[in-house]
Records
---
Amino acid sequence: MPEEKSPLARLRHDLRTPINHIMGYSELLAEDLADRGVTDLDDLNRITAAARSLLDLISERLSDEAFSGITLQESIAAKDYTKVAGSLATEPEEFTEQPSPFTGRILIVDDQPENRNVLARRLERQGHQTLQAENGRHALELLASEPCDLILLDVMMPEMDGFTALGRIKDDPALRHIPVIMISALDEIENVVRCIERGAEDFLPKPFNPTLLRARIGASLEKKAFRDQEHAYLRRIEETQKRLEEELQEAAKYVVSILPEPMDTPFRIRWTYHPSTELGGDSFGYHWIDDTHFAVYLLDVCGHGVGAALLSVAAINVIRSGSLPDTDFLDPGQVLAGLNNTFQMERHNNMYFTIWYGVYDTESRTIRHASGGHPPALLLKPGDAGDQIEPLHAPGMLIGGMPDMTYQSATTAVPPGSRLFVYCDGAYEIRRPDDSMLDFDRDFLPYLRENGRNPALPDQVLAWIRDVHRGEDLDDDYSFIAVDFPP
Amino acid sequence: MPKILLVEDNEMNRDMLSRRLTRRGYEVVIAVDGQQGMDLAGSAAPDVILMDMSLPVIDGWEATRRIKADPATAPIPVIALTAHAMSGDREQALAAGCDDYDTKPIELDRLLGKISAQLERVGKSAPQN
């Protein structure tokens, strides 16, 4: 029984015959070469393998089972091959690309439209979007307006080749983050090396191996996705940091804004405040309690920064507004005891502070004062043998360490023409470059006795300790108030 | 030297297969269609016939039937070559009187094995190499 020559069978036969020729001649050539001792037949073997898979494809796609539709048989008979081509365009199941886990917009740059189209179809099946450009110049024009996650760049192209285009891309700050994979024939490997040195991420040899294509594109997009994410995080961190810095500056401005203005009558008061970071833990103030009583106070919260500043501002506001229950603000001991019970450290972020609080009585020309762990204020008094300096001691525990402490008030006479210095420990606890510390009795007091009449003493002391420290950046906050009592 | 009659209409297939068989020590006689195949089966006295089944004028099926119907040529082993292993091709080929069957693309070693099997069956031997 003769073979039924259906149109489909004829089509199969016509397609298979030239492929069989390719295979047959390849094998023949291989035998000839083997006779001559040539055994490195990689290319020939590749040709044979490719031909074999084409044959498989033809058998499968053009099987009678695949073409049960009569219309198609008829269109083959009528040599109307458009429908046949249409049905071949859908590839069978095992050739269908799985969607890639990392997809993106990929620019394909190749001067061969067939190459571009094949690549574009394949990439789109993997779930990517594609753009096409026919040479380097066209690619750069496209990149100026089209966002893109990955560039596949042919090396050999007319007008502008891949190497030149790569250079332009990598020199452009707006484009250089886009990964570039070079497309090249294997015999262009030296060009590929140049391209990778110039910033190309990888290369893909032509003809494309689908697995390799998928893997390299996937890897590139994955890396880019991580890089993009990293950049986004970095931007967010930078924004947050900027906002925090702005807020810190706002807070610092506020801390400074609650400090009192220098004053000239009836006392001349000058001060200098210099936090070691944006926000310090020092604050101070002075105000009239009544017509004859003038309070001066300075407190120093342990550490510095936001927490210290908040506590410092809270405490100074309590003193300024006189808002402690059952407390006579004329009595420094009562004020400190009240502050101690109000600002216990376990309720205030484990922070404590030291304070010096004094009340000057204009009638008795005395100053009543108490200290909560704070260095003594100093009274510079004019005397027959020149100025004398008297520390205003009144020992007491720091504020917030232990509840129900009592604080003793002491009273000191203030001779006309005296000068009062109130300051924090940051004014004298200064480390020299050789690691030794400035000494309160041997260095600080003599310096003040010597220079105590300088009208700009608060600034002068700061300049002096910076000089001792050999640096602008002090370790602690600096506050210094100088009060001149009238002669 | 065993003589093979290759009945094949495609010029390239003929050229290719004949050259490869010649290399392996066979003498190859060529026919380009079914009619010529039948004629040469009688006149050239081949030891084996390789019959392409899709031939013009008289196709391979018909030519085989006639060769097998003629007592003078009937003993010559015929190996059918079909374009592809479509199901049923083998049965059809054997039913048409073919002694064996192979498919294109030719795998030469496999085909050579079938040729020497047929030669042995009729008491002849394949070339040594």
---
Amino acid sequence: MSNDTDRFKVFSRRAMVLGAAKLAVFGGLAARLGYLQIAEQKRFQTLSDKNRIGHRLLAASRGQITDRFGVPLAVNNQNFRAFLIPEQVEDYDLLFKNLRQFVVLTDFEIEEIKIDIKRQSRFTPVLVKEGLNWEQTAQIEFHLPELPGVFVEEGEVRNYPISDSTAHIVGYVGRVNENEMTDDPIMSMPGFRIGKTGIEKEYDLALRGHAGSIRTEVNAVGREIRELEREDSKDGARVMLTIDAELQNYCQTVLAKEKSASAVVMDAYTGEVYALCSSPGFDPNLFTYGISTEQWEELLNHPALPLNNKAIAGSYPPGSTFKMITALAGLKDGIIDANTTHYCSGVHTVGRDKFHCHKLSGHGNTNLIGALQQSCDVYFYKISEQLGIEKIADMARRFGLGEKLGIDIPGERSGLVPDHDWKRGRYGSKWQLGETIVASIGQGYLLATPLQLATMTARLVNGGKTISPYLAKSIDGKPARQQKMVDIGIPKNHLDLVIRGMNAVTMSKKGTAWDARIKESGFEMGGKSGTSQVKRITRAQRAAGVKNEDLPWKDRHHALFVAHAPINDPRYVCAVVVEHGVGGSSVAAPLAHDIMLEVQRRDLAGITKKDEDTKI
Amino acid sequence: MKQAAVGQKDSMNITERIFQFNWSYLFFITVVAVVGYFALYSAAGGDSDPWASRHAIRYGIGLVGLIIVAMIDLKVWQALAYPLYALGLLLLIIVEIKGQIGMGAQRWINLGFMNLQPSEVMKIVVILALARYFSRVTVEEVRNPKTLLVPLALIGMPTLLVLIQPDLGTALMIIMAGAAIFFLSGLPYIWFAGAAGGALAMIPIAWQFFLHDYQKNRVMTFLNPENDPLGTGYHITQSKIALGSGGLTGKGFLEGTQSRLNFLPEKQTDFIFTLFAEEWGFIGGCVLMGLFIVLMIYGYLIAFRSNNSFGRLLALGLTTNFLLYVFINISMVMGLIPVVGVPLPMISNGGSAMLSVLFGFGLIMCVYIHRDYKLLRR
């Protein structure tokens, strides 16, 4: 009995110890639970949400690009794309074999698809092929039972209806490369394309819109269970250009008469660019699904450089189209006026150097209007000798030469207006008088783009105001740009005198472009031709009387023409440059004639209408 | 002590036994089972099929078994202790020889209506046999090492057999439950210290020769779960996320995203506590643990009320066994110990564990009913 009591005592003591230990364990577990659920709750909540919430992006349609009348220049077409869902495919080799009956799949493409399959979860669709035509789509849809796991979905692809003629303005889109990557989620959309050139690049942010997103609850293997919230996508903005598609097409056709040419047509008062052409063009639709190597090489190696937008990136010596600048510098400086005459013997000698006039026999005594009319070189040699380069350069800059004008597409070049500082910086040597003399007729170091020449002409005829050219008229209906017109400080009588000289070029029989004059009443234009040397004419060539047309194409002179119309109250200006076209008045002026007549007939600025309004 | 003086008897008829039944104890057992029903209902995404309904049926069957076990005379259980132990051992050997392969471990015998896990039976009969043995050993005899040879063998044989299966969790539970009875019988503290030291020394040897690769992986993952977040560490990482994101009050019934979206593995079995605490939060987790503590206290009170040594050891041994399930399972899902595959009793889906635990409660109830028995020492 006492034995049993002992045992009970021992048992009781031990049981209490064991019981206390168990309660302690419970306490420990509760503490751990409290640590996880209370102290660490935030962290685990985040991890849990990360687990369960998946994001899916919703595509936004890229904004349309239209001309000033709403004619579509860049649109989105249906793009039928074939996908496959890996978890539904049993035999890839058989599947690809079957698919190849309907679509072309290279071995390389199949390898790429297999890599995508490995990279993604088994129920995420993998893109097999895009840009399927109707027939291919129908074939695949019809044979779906033999193609387990395959489905066709409609997406969008960029298309350029007027392809070649607007390629340089509108540009094109392409796959995003590493440098273009930002944190915009839309970039991770399958098939997203970013603007690579032109308006597509400049206004890419507005055009691409905003991707929407769906937040979904996903399970452990990533399958969507239900939708939690949705933010709809916002389509890209519609960009309306200042361009008139029909005029643009027309100009492109006119320029296509020559091997390589460019032209800019704009409003002298608003800066709206009505047409901006670079010929030859190219088909931007080639880039949609990736251009073939052969086509790319062909574009790259073409002597006329079709990929270049020569209207804004082609830099040419302006030749005689620069003479208005020299004249205005002379007028401003007071060394000439309307009546000042200079004698042209066909050559001007400075020290031991001889500077020839294009007319070897000379123009005799001539005033400013005559010098512009007949494009007498010696007249300008003489005044530039008195002026010096700095005054000429200053005048050139007032007219937008030597600087980028800020047109709203990428790739614009600044041209070049040389002066003492530039020469010292570039060559480390002193400016020479001879260099001033050649600059006075737009030769030597001077370079200008067709866009600059058109802008220069615009500032001449609009009363000396700093308009700048632009292409985007409105974005989603809102005006894209406010034109700031600042006076460039040229007296009106100076401008009028120069314009009279330009009018004499086309409107008088002695004018260099008399043959290219517009005969239609009310549509007459004024202008100035220019023929700029690509290579110096050697003494031997001059002596032998070698004709420029006989030289290799690459060595021939550039032909330029700047024009304004109508002659009474100029509203439209244009610049035409025909690369290696030999004669400004014989080659470039007739093109300008066609273009200036057409733009007036189309009455883009609404002059005729306004006149009628004022009559009432 | 008053009652001990009043009734000291050696036999009871059926009616007396029914009157002695502890209904409140049964009530709390049922409450835990009901919690299990709803947890399994949630695990199936708000459906009684496939787990919750079967859980209820199993509980029903187990409840009948519990009452039958409780009604059987304690002397019968004392007499059957060794034969049942032998039967359990035999089942383990049968499983070893012709058991079916499941989860890479041979663990159950197909009885036609259910899969029986002999290791679950073994957990109970080992305690039964040990209680029987130690009930006849005096405090002095316990200090004699020779006395310990038999109980050590009683523990050692099934432990080795379940280790071969391999089922580390059950082996640990048998050893720990056995140790508890040793402890309650008055084995000197110093010996436990020695045994613990010996066990620690065994770890490197066990690691080298006895542990399977998957078991080693589990231990390595436990030590560094972030090392392998998508492999073996995935379970425990996701379990911690589920628990932690539950917060103080939980995400709500049927709203446990981790479990419903299948991030939580084995949510209806080993990780049911995670599911429960994700949906009911810290408060729910503590309430459930509180229920387990209530059952523990009942076990202790019954043991102290028992007038015979066999009953006392049996009641505490079985209570300890029950709590071992709880401790190992909850520690495991909270990342405190490696994943060893021990279910949460009365909550997890699974037949053998539930029946085994209810069998145990039946025996404790039997101890309560026969608390005034004064069983002879020899």
---
Amino acid sequence: MAEHLLEVRNLSVDFHTAAGTVSAVRNVTWHLDRGETLAILGESGSGKSVSASTIMNLIDMPPGEITSGEVLFEGRDLLKMTDEQRRELNGCRIAMIFQDPLSHLNPVYTVGWQICEMMTVHDVPADQAKARTLELLRRVGIPNPEAAMDKYPHEFSGGQRQRLMIAMALALKPDILIADEPTTALDVTVQAQVLALLEELQRETGMGLLLITHDLGVVAEIADRVVVMNKGEIVESGDAAEVYLNPKHPYTKRLIDAAPGKGETRDEEDRLGEPLLRVDRLQQHYGGFHALKGASFSIMPGETVAIVGESGSGKSTMARAILRLDEPSGGKVIWKGRDLLKMTPKELFAIRRDIQMVFQDPTQSLNPRMTVYQIISEAWIVHPDILPKARWKDRVAELLVQVGLSPEMAKRYPHQFSGGQRQRIAIARALALEPKLIICDEAVSALDVSIQAQVIELLDGLRRDLGLSYLFIAHDLPVVRDFADRVIVMKSGEIVEEGHVGQIFDAPRMPYTQALLAASLDPDPEVQATRRNARKSEGLVPA
Amino acid sequence: MKRFIGKRAMASAISLVGLIVLVFFLSRLTGDPTDLYLPIDATQEMRDKFRELHGLNDPLIVQFGRYVWDLLHFDFGESIRQARPAMEVVLEGFRWTLTLAVITMTLVTVAAIVIGSLAAFKVGGVFDRITSFFSLIGASAPDFWIAIVGIVIFAVQLRWLPTSGTGTIWHWILPISVLFIRPFGLILQVVRGSMITALSSAYVKTAKAKGVPPRPIIFVHGLRNAMLPVITVIGDQAAGILNGAVVVETIFGFPGIGKLMIDAILQRDFAVILAAIMVSAVAIFIMNLLIDLAYAMLDPRIRY
């Protein structure tokens, strides 16, 4: 048997917590060769990051314990080495980059210093390290490398920070690069650039790339082989395209089915009459910065309108301005014929119950010290005319059933639920006021794909049953494709393009929309291959 | 930056004026110094003369006006008891206290940071538990008690150290040790807590993945991030000593500003009280400014 560059054999890791012992991974076996890209695919809690942490000696022991297995790097078992021997390999032979580059870079040191440190701890003389840092910054595409050396992490954009992490990781030309969700926090166009950079660098150096991800699209874009993990075990592995086209394990099938963006887009309906909400040249200025530069659109009763755009496009600013959570600088928001922005606080209060909001992170938007019953019924304390107190209990039970939870959960606290369940509670809370319009600000972005699909289905069912309208703010295009009637594309505070979902996805008119679509990743490796070629030949990804 | 310092100085000056007004009138409420300085059988004539001499016959508001007028000419008045300029008396005491504070806080800072950081590296380990135990005792023990026990053991029984006064290096050991204990316990706990947060952060994970050895991880990557809350507490504790380590200075007969202030209040030496308060207020203003500057130096995200 030929020796692999890196081989994990029968690895089992337990974590001993106050609540008992948790098996993070059980009997995990995989290998990585020079020049290839292996993806470990899994949802949160699947244990997909644990083997990488074991390789890098990042598991705190206790509470962690490696109960069995070996990790062979060039035939030598890492787990039998001393801490010092492993430090010599870390960074030098095996390097790692992480999901959130802002928190993974030390905020109080310059990036030049941090990249140099990678080399100086491995005995490269300081002057050589400095020269190499400049070279690396240039290589990963940081503008003005000399000046960038003396800047701090917070002075760069998200994409640039990930480039800095990559520069640091590749400083000593490692044999293996481990990338843990390297593009999850990035915008689609930036994600495409970073993945392209990783691929290029891999071609240059011949390193093995281990990619940990939850995103089938990332797998389709870059991986040669894939290992699918669920609940600490490998359920399936093999050639990336093969696994996607012929999944063998039921979990893999479910995961692939749940991936958004594959179904038919909604039929175009002619909706006549008075719009429910009409936004007219809405503006929001923060000092000299114009976050919204006069955006206009409308939502008809029963319609789902999606606003898509990258960070900084003004899409969340729009939501906050419509609800007057931040007072807009100009324009009109017409709700059923009346301008919300001209209403007195008292009139606005009455209207607010018609427009409810569901936020991105249910962990933060639900009060941890209130029970689900208290969270949902609080709305009726604020608006006492909706429901007599005697009926609260029944209504909470009804709402919980409506969002797919059970009535006895009313007594529990938010931390006793999973992320997806919490978002259902947030939706039940919004429904308590019997709104006409729900504004979802990235409401499914933090959820795993399979959960995401369920929540989208729930929202869609509620739309049909209750005749709700949605303003659905998202950066994730495939989700929008499945869910929306109409799509508004925003960039730098302006609406770039607006149209029916079929038109936007199948025949986008504006170059920006085209670039956005070209950069977004499809879970199907074949579709993705076509997209890549188109992207390369037309140079659609904006720099 | 200059603007920031200017603004800060302005705000502090306003509080200082308020403080002077308050202390001026409050200290007059304690009574008439004449009774304290003249013999009990002094004649009315002598009393009137004494009061005339120190301007105590005029209405309060006139006395205040005169005081402010003198202040504007940098005249802080005379000490009744010592018969020399109040500011001179105060600065002399302040010099002693400043030396005491600088030595004590330097020792405290170095010791608390090193020991607290090491304790945080292995939370729950033997070293961590021992230091936590002693630092908690240190942080909660009353200093007058430690001072008295210290005198009993080291000065009275063992006869290693003098009981009070100044003069030789041996005189400094007991006061510094007593002043050391409480801030040390407190700051050590803050360093430990702050370091635990820093060491479990994502950038420390990156450093480990880079192969950085433990010592630079603690003292280079962790410490600078952990220092911000620590500096606030260091400043607070140093201010406590500068303000007059009243108890310790009194017990050890140490001629610092704390003992001076207590004596001045007991003897209704108004000019000295006011001058002492002004000196400590300015010292604390300067120290707070230094803390703000240290913040900006340590964390590039903070800019004034």
